[in-house]
Write a structure and sequence with these properties.
Layout: E1 2-6, H1 13-22, E2 26-31, H2 34-42, H3 53-62, E3 68-72, H4 79-89, E4 93-96, H5 103-106, H6 110-134, E5 139-145, E6 157-158, E7 162-168, E8 174-180, H7 188-207, E9 211-216, E10 218-220, H8 246-256, E11 260-263, E12 269-274, H9 275-287, E13 297-301, E14 304-307, H10 308-319, E15 323-326, E16 339-340, H11 343-347, H12 357-369
Parallel strand pairs: 1-2, 1-4, 2-3, 4-5, 5-9, 6-16, 9-13, 10-12, 11-15
Antiparallel strand pairs: 7-8, 12-14
Helix pairs in contact: 1-9, 4-6, 6-7, 8-10, 8-12
């Protein structure tokens, strides 16, 4: 297959690029390196020393890897360049990972909210619009998030996209329908993923574009089999308060002797997936038969759900560090249950990787190896959004500080 990966320099995009190339696909990568530029803005670069994309690709080829093409392109801004790329590419699948992916970052200020809306929704619409213009028959695979559903208190399994309902017509008869499961985004980032799905639904219905939306859980871990082959291929490792996911943050804190920072009560339940499973699930979606019924196919890309305090306790037992409770910087319930249906991807052959000490130790060991690159105070929450304060004021972070 000829596959275009939008955002192929990123945390999920880079290991996916290597996996697809390694198994024989022709891969073209697009990126504008905005994520690397954000590192400078927030003052916390990747804990692992990642090379430039050109150096990464050269290293991959030097190790005998299949050639990977790269094009620098801002898909949210350069529509003409995107049309030219799609016209010349004749792609079988387009994997869209080129979005601003942090909920806290999206809520930092009015400018950050506007940037996230513009970047994410324009990027998604531009790709689908360009596909129609050039007559592309590619399967469009979008990486979404479980966060589109919110974290409410409904005691029921979250289905894969659609909820079967009965609607009574004017004659009093009941008719079966599938409706999109009600969204409940908790940040501008999550809102853009809801908007993305609506855009996809329109293009699937109106123009017959085959679309798959992967509602992913929180990703943890950092390495895959391909990125672990050589240090020059190492994947990025975010640990900061804006981009570091909860379990990776705990493992960095535990590995470096810093107290684990639990927001609020720690009673929140989150959906989790290891980075190896992220790559495998996207591969399965790419290689599977694309939907042809003018309806977006939705899969919940989730391995398991875990309570945040429970995660902290696991890491504390593994590393011996203490747990600190911070005032929650986010507007969310103090605790919630979460149960998720994930049969779609399993039906394609995926076996979820569950949390265990061996995998946590692997991530902890990477954190220890590069501990000298850690900016301690960057681990703490940098963005606050709660109902008791205005988001655009310079609100202080919770009162915890690490001594350098």
């Amino acid at each position: 297959m000829r596959i275009l990966i939008l955002g192929g320099d990123g945390f999920s995009g880079w290991p996916l690029t290597l996996r697809l190339a390694d198994i024989g696909h022709d891969v073209v990568v697009v990126d504008n390196f905005v994520r690397r530029k954000i590192d400078a803005e927030i003052g916390a670069k990747s804990l692992t020393p990642i090379l430039t994309l050109s150096e990464r690709l050269d290293a991959w080829r030097a190790l005998g890897g299949r050639g990977i093409k790269f094009q620098y392109l801002d898909i949210a801004a350069d529509y003409h360049g995107l049309v030219c790329l799609l016209k010349d590419g004749d792609f079988d699948a387009i994997v869209h990972l080129a979005e601003q992916k942090s909920a806290p970052y999206s809520m930092k200020s009015a400018a950050h909210r506007a940037l996230t809306i513009s970047q994410n929704t324009n990027a998604t619409h531009n790709v689908l619009n360009a596909m129609v213009e050039v007559g592309s028959k590619a399967h469009f695979i979008h990486l979404g998030t479980m966060g589109v559903y919110g974290y409410g208190a409904i005691d029921a399994d979250i289905p894969e996209g659609y909820l079967p309902v009965q609607i009574q017509n004017k004659d009093g008869d009941w008719q079966a329908h599938d409706i999109l499961y009600p969204p409940g985004p908790g940040s501008i980032y999550h809102l853009t993923k809801c908007l993305d799905h609506t855009i996809m639904a329109f293009y699937a219905k109106t123009f017959g574009i085959a679309c798959t939306d992967l509602h992913q859980g929180i990703v943890w871990g950092t390495q895959t089999d391909e990125t672990a082959r050589d240090e020059r291929l190492i994947n990025r490792f975010d640990y900061d308060g804006d981009y570091g996911t909860v379990l990776n943050r705990f493992l960095v804190q535990g590995a470096t002797g810093l107290p684990l920072t639990v927001y609020g009560t720690g009673g929140q339940t989150r959906a989790l997936i290891h980075i190896k499973d992220t790559v495998e699930c996207i591969r399965l979606a790419v290689e599977s038969t694309s939907p042809e019924d003018r309806k977006v196919r939705v899969y919940n890309q989730v391995s398991e759900t875990q309570n945040v305090l429970g995660l902290a306790q696991k890491v504390s037992a593994l590393t011996g560090v203490e747990i600190n409770f911070l005032e929650n910087p986010r507007l969310e319930l103090a605790q919630n249950d979460l149960s998720v249906t994930n049969t779609g991807l399993q039906g394609l052959g995926w076996t979820p990787t569950l949390l265990d000490d061996a995998l946590m130790n692997e991530t902890k060991d990477i954190a220890q190896r590069y501990a000298s690159r850690l900016v301690k105070n960057a681990v703490l929450p940098q963005t606050v959004w709660r109902s008791d304060m205005r988001l655009d004021k310079n609100a202080a972070s919770p009162q915890t500080r690490y001594v350098a």
